[in-house]
Amino acid sequence: MRRKEKHMNDPAAIAAVLRSADVLHLGMCDDGWPYVTPVNFALVDDRILIHSARKGRKMEMLRKNDRVCIQVETDTALVEPAAPDNACQYTMRFRSVIGFGRAVIHTDAATVQRGLEALMARYSSRQFHFPAAVVEKTAVIAVTLETVTGKQDGWE
């Protein structure tokens, strides 16, 4: 990382960013072209869980290439400078995480059920029932990160 003063070294701080972000951007590669899609997610046992239909572009790409990139940001805020006429002095406060890892697609009913429960627990305090017909059409993608970096500015 070029700007060492912005680097987040603490694994707990990185995990906190992952837990507080609402949306994760999942990056994949499709025949040499990058493809990024926003997804809901949960962090469970150092793995990122994402739900998906079993068919579609995202699943086709992951079946061909399990390497992924994830990105989240949180705590964003515009910082206006003392001299507001100087555009170069404007900046953003933020916390972000970028990671690289591998995705595993799970389709067995028990794993999908647990994954859906973890995802809903992250976004709601309610308990939900997932009908078998829904579970049969759903996959859970588990991303294990091999490298992860955190960056922050303005929140030191």
Automatic annotation (TrEMBL):
InterPro entries: Pyridox_Oxase-rel (IPR024747), Split_barrel_FMN-bd (IPR012349). It holds the Pfam family Pyridox_ox_2. Transmembrane segments: none annotated. This is Putative pyridoxamine 5'-phosphate oxidase-related FMN-binding protein.
